[in-house]
Amino acid sequence: MAKRDRRFFKDNFPALRNSMYLNTGSEGLIPRETYKQINKLIKRNFKYGGSHPHFYDMVNFNFSKIPHYLKLLGVDPEKQIRVSSVSEGLNFCFNMLSNNNIKKILLLKDEFKTGILASYAFAEKNKAKLIWADDLDDYYKRLKTDKPDIAIMSHVDYRDGKDNNIERFYSECKKNNVFFIVDGAQAIGNLFIRFPQEIHADLYVWTTHKWLCSPRGLGFINVSQRIKDSIGPLGYHYFATEVFRPPEIKIIDSMDSMSVHAANFIGEIGFVSSMRFLDKKIGIDNILKINEDNKNYFYKVAEKNSIKVEVSDTNLLSIKVDEPEKVVEAMLRRKILIRSIPDTEYIRVSIHLYNNKKDIDVFFKNLNQILGEK
Amino acid sequence: MAKRDRRFFKDNFPALRNSMYLNTGSEGLIPRETYKQINKLIKRNFKYGGSHPHFYDMVNFNFSKIPHYLKLLGVDPEKQIRVSSVSEGLNFCFNMLSNNNIKKILLLKDEFKTGILASYAFAEKNKAKLIWADDLDDYYKRLKTDKPDIAIMSHVDYRDGKDNNIERFYSECKKNNVFFIVDGAQAIGNLFIRFPQEIHADLYVWTTHKWLCSPRGLGFINVSQRIKDSIGPLGYHYFATEVFRPPEIKIIDSMDSMSVHAANFIGEIGFVSSMRFLDKKIGIDNILKINEDNKNYFYKVAEKNSIKVEVSDTNLLSIKVDEPEKVVEAMLRRKILIRSIPDTEYIRVSIHLYNNKKDIDVFFKNLNQILGEK
After folding, report:
1. What's the CATH number of domain B6-30+286-373, 1.10.3720.10, 3.40.50.300, 3.90.1150.10, 3.40.47.40?
2. Which residues of B touch A213 (CB under 8 A)?
3. Which chain A residue has its CA at the smallest distance from B48's CA?
4. CATH code of domain B37-279
5. Where are the domains of chain B?
6. Facing B95 at nearest CB: one of A95, A246, A259
7. Test the A interface: residue of B22, B29, B51 with most A CBs within 10 Å
8. Contacts of A118 in chain B (CB under 8 A)
9. pLDDT one-digit tens code per residue, A257-272
């Protein structure tokens, strides 16, 4: 870590020069290298046109690297469905399952908006019933008693950073023939950096733009073997329309197919570039260690200041305050970027690898001042 | 048009300095102003972070302009569902209709890949049957005789630029209670620049990245009144998950909701910027006139050169040649960008407002040389 000091991070993430960024869980910072690559892509589009071979040279080169980085993160490229966002991914999950006569969907009460919205949309269209579990134990119980067809939850609770420990739920789902959908938006790069050998969900949606320092625009659905068996071959570059492939259609596995189906290539180019940065400049196995050090220090300083930080399994850290929106605003005036959690009395801080002890000291110093003023 | 001469277009579309761009139907060129705006957006993301208010200032400002430009194009912002691509849009159309007990889908044989793929995907999932019409008259007949639940076609045939004259089909669809889905990818900015008062489809999917000089990443589904009545209120900024809104969910109509659901904002920023360019610098009502002049000149020079150009209702112009791929490659070596049409013996030229008579002269001169060499 000798060379990865404060200067290194400020040089590589210029946003740190303009504010103290403690809000990675909403949107991670983009490294300089990634910014340059996206710029280059847009410049090529501008200079040559978006269907010119010089433009596609760059697109194809970057796409060819995606499987490598997927493998580095521990997922099988052949089991990923490419989506543009977690929201699109969750909707797609429901649509994939729509021919399975879905009558009941199990959710965790007040949990996560994106999953709830996708569930509502599906329930509304398909006259399915939503079942709300009060808490995780109730959820576990209802998997057996309420016989849902789909169970959906997030891997990490975005409000307090707690690990929902999806393993036991998936194991119960498999016993009861329930499709288990997991929103993993806050897990990769935060709870873990390499996926475990077994991913405990039938459909596990994850994104690259929070904890992997990528721009918005690229996410994936990891499908379980039983889902994969039912939908046929997949490739990381296949889109919605190409998942179900009847024999009459020529398999489109050249890069040409991307040009038809991709929204734009910012997500992909950004992911490859940011992963290269994380891999070469930080070392992806150092990320969780850096984050753990930051987190431990955060709890230590909080204790010294007699501020209670909720228990968390990740680097999403929440603190109960009066009028959280006002605290967030006051912090922003001091150029410290955090967020509030809607309908709760919590502010949430998410510390990533580019933060350091000084950031944490400054955060608490300012929080004390703001709370003292009120 | 005095000031909008060759220099004006070369200054505003630098891609024209590097190649003769006669392939707008695949991907239109981005004006300098749009390039600058996208650059600015990415720079802000890089400089402040993607959840910083300074970043969202720009996003919000641009989003607030979208309804204005939708109205300028003749569509009702309240009837648009925002999608990222025509492919996503077509899949979404099928998903919207999936609770209507769809058993039969009518398609036009060999027509358009994106629509065919979406239909296949839906048919595969929902055990629906695909019915293939041999030609437009057969399609019209089958609307009555085959009793499909969904009929799908493109507004303009991407291969030869012919107007499929959707009006009579929609009128027949309404009589027979068929949902009519239209892929309008090649229509806006090419067949028309302002939508007609009545849009002849239940679900009309269109995109901004071909003939409206925008980058990839933004398209819309225009929904008919009968569809709108069945799905409730819509806004141009609503996404898949937010189309079906039960009363339990607070209506999310602030710009905040974009940050959750948008892939990235390139499509939106690009659309607003390119529309501003078309509106202020060209005048959107001049576009079709410029294109018609170009087209007339194209036919004239073709005739002089004894080259047969197929009849077309738009600026998608096709010419039968031996080995079209080789012609495309030879043209590219001469820095002239056109395309071939898969599984046919045609090359396709699509001339947009930034092309002029000289481009057309150069095209035919080179085509003659290439055909002569073979």
Report:
1. 3.90.1150.10
2. none
3. A15
4. 3.40.640.10
5. 6-30+286-373, 37-279
6. A95
7. B51
8. 240-241
9. 333 345 788 999 999 9
Is the minimum CB–CB distance between B121 and chain A shorter than 8 Å? yes
Q: Is A217 on the interface with B (CB under 8 A)?
A: yes
> Does B118 lie at the interface with A, CB-CB under 8 angstroms?
yes
Return the half-sphere exposure (C-beta side, CA atoms, 13 A cut-off) of residue A341.
23
What CA–CA distance (Å, rounded) separates A113 from A93? 16
CB–CB contacts below 8 A, A to B: 219
**Of residues B45, B125, B246, nearest to A99 (C-beta):** B125
Query: Which residues are registered as beta bridge partners of B317?
Result: B349
Mutate to test the interface with A, among B39, B119, B125, B183 (most CBs of A within 10 A): B125
Chain A residues inside the 8 Å CB shell of B50: 26-30, 209, 215-216
pLDDT per residue over B143-155, tens digit each? 999 999 999 999 9
Query: Residue A203: CA atoms inside 13 Å, Cβ hemisphere, count?
Result: 27
In single-letter form, the type of residue at position A231 comes to I
- The amino acid sitting at B270 is G
CA B193 to chain centre: 12
CA distance B223 to B78: 9
B254 DSSP 8-state letter? S
Q: What is the ipTM of this complex?
A: 0.91
Residue spans of alpha helices (H) in A127-206: 136-145, 166-176
Residue B241 binned pLDDT confidence (cut-offs 50, 70, 90): very low
Q: Please give the structure tokens belonging to residue A353.
A: 């690898």
Min Cα–Cα distance to chain A from B107, Å: 15
Distances (CA, A) of A175 to A147, A154, A172: 11, 20, 5
The two beta strands, A20-21 and A336-337, are parallel
Its CATH class, for the domain covering A6-30+285-373, is alpha beta
CB-nearest to A35 from B46, B123, B339 is B46
Given this model, what pLDDT does residue B231 score? 64
- Mutation to test the A interface, candidates B33, B44, B48, B117, most A Cβ within 10 Å: B117
pLDDT tens digits along B14-53: 999 999 999 999 999 999 999 999 999 999 999 999 999 9
Amino acid at site A63: F
Contact B206, B193 (CB under 8 A): no
Phi first, then psi, for residue B132 (nearest 5°) are: -105, 120
Distance CA A56, CA A50 (A): 8
Tens digits of residue pLDDT in B182-214: 999 999 999 999 999 999 999 999 999 999 999
CA of B233 vs chain A CAs: smallest distance (Å): 14
Q: Which residues make Cβ contacts (< 8 Å) with residue B156, sequence separation at least 6?
A: B162, B163, B164, B184, B185, B186, B187, B190, B191, B313, B314, B316
Structure-block tokens of residue B217? 């990443």
In sequence order, the 6+-apart residues with CB closer than 8 A to the CB of B59 are: B41, B255, B258, B259, B265, B268, B269
Class of domain A38-279: alpha beta
Residues of chain B in contact with residue A267, where contact means CB-CB under 8 angstroms, are 263-264
Report the residue of chain A nearest B54, measured CA to CA: A18
